[in-house]
Structure formats: structure tokens, C-alpha cells
Amino acid sequence: xxxxxxxDGPLGSTLLTINEPDRFEAAVNITREGYxxxxxxxxxxxxxxxxxxxxxxxxxxxxxxxxxxxxxxxGIEARYEKIMRLPPSxxxxxxxxxxxxxxxxxxxxxxxxxxxxxxxxxxxxFPARLLELAKPGQIASLLxxxxxxxxxxxxNSLKKFSVQRRILDxxxxxxxxDLICLNKVMEHIRKPQNVISAxxxxxxxxxxxxxxxxPHQITIDRRPSTDNILGALHKHxxxxxSLSSFLANNxxxxxxxxxxxxxSGKLTCYAFASxxxxxxx
Length: 281
Description:
CATH architecture: 3-Layer(aba) Sandwich
Helix content: 25-40%
Number of strands: 11
Strand content: 15-25%
CATH topology: Rossmann fold
């Protein structure tokens, strides 16, 4: 790979070289013999791109519908309960939900209830807590999309919101949404431009907001190479500038972008974006 997955710019300096397969690679029989994977910085947009052998990428594609089987086995319900029991000061998710709800309260000024789409809901802790912490009448509906079969069954069992087992693409036709969220998902998608296009098409014409959260690339400097953020399933890492640039290059207007250190210690970039600068009348 010679060019950036996000902007097609030339890849520059090597930020990190990894010579040991991670647990997801081991699960698809990628061995350490001759193994090398590098994180390289795009000379144009500044994102960090994960460069690996194309044969290894093809093997990892087999995990698209088995991620949680490798990651958690049969422990998905226990993980969900554990995270939901965390006190607010120790919960990344709690802080994320407050960030989203506080922004939407400032952005919307007519008090209308939000139709929400959560893409790649995983364990479901974000949509569950969003419904719990929202003010009465703040959310009209919430739909969660999740392609992984284990996570999908778990989300259905919660019986807290609607769930569809699928990805978001141009075949998705379920009306428009006032808020679409993509939390720690975009870094898993090799070329996320099509997903962003689908999100843009599904935002309400005026005032619809897209919230995206991704790992920050300074994780490369601050964490050991074995950190899960630096693993093979993550295709790109961002800073605030490269995240904002990617959204703008794909037709969105960035309303707010920032960096946070989560209670767990994770280093995170986030952004709110829209098709319009005007909030609702």
C-alpha cells in the first residue's frame, strides 16, 4: 500500500513497526514467521494508516461476522452488565452520552424529539445509556444497526430499542434521522467513504447531526505496540485535524471537534458534523 485509504495521499514516515501478530490475527492463523505490520502517516491528511500484507487482510476479512466470538466468546452479556454498572466517573460510555446529549440540546432549539440511528452498536451500552440519560421526550425513536450475529442477538435480548442485523450502505432506506452515531467503528472500515455517504444521505435536511468517535493516533506514542487500539482490525487512526479533514472532504460541515482522555485511559477524537450550519428553527 502506497496511498492513504482516506484521501489517497502518499504515505510518509513509519510511526510504528509491529512484528508480532495480535490475537485476532492468530485466530485466523496468521503466524509470526516473516510477519511485519506498520503504522504510517499520510503526508497529505495526517491520518495514521495500518499497512499489512494483502494476504493477511484477506484472512482478517473472515472475522467480519465473528468479531465477538473471538473477542468475548460467550461473555457478551457479562461484559455489558459490567460496563453498565460502572460509576459515571469511571465510564467512557457515560461521558460519551453526556457529550452527545449536551451538544444536541444546544444545537436544537425547538425541543423536538430526536430520531436516532446508532451504527455498529456492539454491546449496546451506548444506546441503552442514551435512552436512560435523555430527558423525557428528548428521544422519539432509536434504531441500532449491528452485523455481528452474537452482538445482534444480545441487542435484541435487551428489548430497549429496535435492532437490525446489517451494515449501513446505500441500500438502507429507513427514513431520515436527527442524530446518527458512529462510536469506535469507523477505524474498523478499510475505506469508510461509502458509510459516510450513506450517513449524509440519511441525515434530516436541516439540523441533522452526525457524531463520530475514533481512537487518537497519539496512542502510537503513548501505548505499547500490543495495545488493542494498535491492532490489525483498526485500519486508520486520527488526530482532530485529520478527522475534521476527512469529514469535510466527504461533504460534511464540522460543527465541533475535540480530543478527550477517557476515564479508561483511552485517547479519543470526536466530531459533530452536519449537512448544514443552521440548527432547527
